[in-house]
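Next up, sample data.

:::
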Amino acid sequence: MSAEPAGGGRTLDPRLLVALAVVVAAWIVLTRPWLSGTFAVPWDAEAHFRPQMVFLAHALQAGDSPAWNPNVFAGWPQIADPQSLIFAPAFLVLALFVAEPGSVALDATVFAQLGIGALALFAWFRDKGRHPGAAVVAAIAFAFGGSAAWRIQHTGQVLSYALVPVALLLVERMIVRRSIGWGFAAGLGAGCLALGRDQIALLGLYFLVAYALTEIFAPADRWARLKGTIVPGLAGVVGGLLVVTVPVTMTLLLSAESNRPTIDFIGAGKGSLP
């Protein structure tokens, strides 16, 4: 845990810097086979998501709108498709600056998102006063084990997965610091998670709601916490709605004409078990 000086503020624990360096070094070593171009993440990443990214980049670089893709069926409302990557901030930035994104660019963007998620989880451990070693293990396991390893080819779902600890950190700070700014940021984080519009995002949002309720009502000062969280929570609702309203509405309109909603929650849940 960090040392507490007499003034009540926190001093920086040198162990945190060492632990953070270990996480960054692990990310560099473990991503090198892909970021060097020796390997590419296969299957869905190459067959589906790289063409989506290339279409987005070509449209933006040519000054065209990526909202409609004439190359799918008789035309496809790309802007309403959750897998189009239009509303994935990291890929949108990539498409704006890279005219011909290849496998390395795609994989680097995915691993960067996982790295950001790992750092957010590391920061959450610090906020909770946990041992820096535990933060290292959790961050590396999050970014390279379990679901991250199994689903790495499912680009959209990995992006949703990577955002869960980011939103978790923001929600934690909203509750503990009772800040409108952190509340608004938590809403933006949860909204970005919801933009994934997949089962990973849905399960992540369920988790965040359960976590927030537990953090508010479990402590002895639950009513003070509830009172202090109301205004920041409302700011979070505003932030979330600003992010999700238009994309989610368009996806709902598209889903009314699609057969994808016939994939039920039980089937999606089985796919999430690993």
Observations:
- The radius of gyration is 20 Å.
- Confidence is low (pLDDT under 50) at residues 1-9.
